[in-house]
């Protein structure tokens, strides 16, 4: 019983090992990229459209709406990064229905790499939104004594992201393996359904936490008044006011 | 009792205690969070999307404590460095 797919090695040449993690990661990447290329070859804007195109539209617009609800005002800028995180972790969990497949996120290497990419992306987005000086001054708020605690919290958030995802995926596969040796038929099916559910929830959690951290980094220095003003001019209220204007002008004219 | 037995006994007992005690706190915390979320959903049903999303994020943060305990327990059982070291020594003899 192995702890992670890193230990299954298919091919070895000196220091280079082709283990199950790398193989399944590249397999997932191929499936996602080739699938998307095949679907987006002929996009249509008619009423009649391909069901795969509808599926992709549901996914993309759903992620965009979630990013906007968390508080990032231009979701398109962050959609590629956060959408990739969500899709990778979600399909890695979804394909456990295929026998013989082990999710690559069940290895600490993969989850550490994903968490490290979030760790690098947060300052990048923060500096792009507000400049280097403003972003670095955030670490000194509320007082400059908080500087070591803010730095430590950055690292601990990243570590928590990695270990949370690894723990959830690894526990799913481990419990399934243990149950298969005890009660072969019914209970492993129930546990694999539970593993699918937790995999989807963990994918959502990973991407939403990344969004929340990025929102905290890009929004923190905007003055409170401006954020209130922007909230009041949200699309719904501006539509309502434009309706009122349109209703007024015919009666006046 | 030689060192091999001591290491095995300590690892097994600690693994069991880790996951047993370590899942009490997160379970209680998640129950409280869920109860509060249900109350606020009953009071304001039209904010259900925000409440549900915040509930899930909060539950994931609390759950990660239990996951840390589970990871430590699994390491003690299946990837125990002290056990591996002692076994390597015994095989070497």
Question: Quick recap of the structure?
Answer:
The complex is a heterodimer of chains A (253) and B (93). With 253 residues, chain A is mainly alpha-helical. Chain A has one domain.
What does this structure look like?
The complex is a heterodimer of chains A (253) and B (93). By secondary structure, chain A is mainly α. In chain A, 74% of the residues lie in helices and 4% in strands. Chain A has one domain (5-41, 50-223). Chain A is globular and about 60 Å long. The termini of chain A are far apart. The model of chain A is unreliable at 248-253 (pLDDT under 50). Chain B is mostly helical and 93 residues long. Helices cover 89% and strands 0% of the residues of chain B. The two termini of chain B are 19 Å apart. The A-B interface holds A 1, 3, 66, 69, 160, 163-164, 166-168, 170-171, 174, 201-202, 204-205, 208-209, 212 and B 49-50, 53, 56-57, 60-61, 63-64, 67-68, 70-71, 74-75, 78-79.
Span of the ends, CA to CA of chain B:
19 Å
Helical proportion of chain B? over 70%
Helix proportion of chain A: over 70%
Strand order of the largest sheet of chain A: 1-2
Summarize the biggest pleated sheet of chain A: 2 strands, antiparallel
Q: What is the fourth-level CATH superfamily of chain B?
A: F1F0 ATP synthase subunit C
Count of individual beta strands of chain A: 2
Q: Could you tell me the mean pLDDT of chain A?
A: 84
Count of separate DSSP helical elements of chain B? 4
Sheet with most strands of chain B:
none
In percent, how much strand structure appears in the residues of chain A? under 5%
Q: Ends of chain A: how far apart?
A: 80 Å
Radius of gyration of chain B, in angstroms, nearest whole number: 21 Å
> N-to-C SSE series of chain B?
HHHH
């Amino acid at each position: 019983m192995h702890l992670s797919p890193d230990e299954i090695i298919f091919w070895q040449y000196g220091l280079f090992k082709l283990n199950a993690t790398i193989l399944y990661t590249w397999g997932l990447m191929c499936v996602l990229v080739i699938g998307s290329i095949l679907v987006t070859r002929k996009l249509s804007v008619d009423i009649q459209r391909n069901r795969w195109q509808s599926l992709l539209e549901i996914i993309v617009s759903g992620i965009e709406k979630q990013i906007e609800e968390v508080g990032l005002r231009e979701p398109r800028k962050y959609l590629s990064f956060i959408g990739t995180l969500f899709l990778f972790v979600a399909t890695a969990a979804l394909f456990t229905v295929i026998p013989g497949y082990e999710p690559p996120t069940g290895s600490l290497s993969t989850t550490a790499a994903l968490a490290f990419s979030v760790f690098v992306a947060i300052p990048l987005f923060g500096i792009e939104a507000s400049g280097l000086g403003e972003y670095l001054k955030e670490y000194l708020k509320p007082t400059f004594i908080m500087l070591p605690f803010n730095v430590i919290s950055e690292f601990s958030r990243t570590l928590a992201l990695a270990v949370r995802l690894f723990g959830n995926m690894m526990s799913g596969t481990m419990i399934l393996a243990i149950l298969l040796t005890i009660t072969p038929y019914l209970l492993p099916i129930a546990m694999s359904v539970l593993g699918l559910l937790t995999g989807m929830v963990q994918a959502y959690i990973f991407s939403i936490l990344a969004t929340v951290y990025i929102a905290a980094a890009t929004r923190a220095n905007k003055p409170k008044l401006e954020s209130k003003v922007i909230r009041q001019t949200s699309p719904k209220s501006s539509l309502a006011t434009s309706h009122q204007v349109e209703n007024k002008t015919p009666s006046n004219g | 009792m030689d060192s091999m037995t001591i290491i095995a006994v300590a690892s097994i007992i600690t693994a069991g205690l880790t996951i047993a005690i370590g899942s009490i706190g997160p379970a209680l915390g998640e129950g409280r969070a869920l109860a509060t979320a249900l109350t606020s959903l009953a009071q304001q049903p039209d904010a259900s999307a925000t409440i549900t999303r915040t509930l899930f994020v909060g539950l994931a943060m609390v759950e990660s404590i239990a996951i840390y305990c589970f990871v430590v327990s699994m390491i003690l059982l299946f990837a125990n460095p002290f056990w591996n070291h002692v076994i390597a020594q015994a095989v070497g003899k």
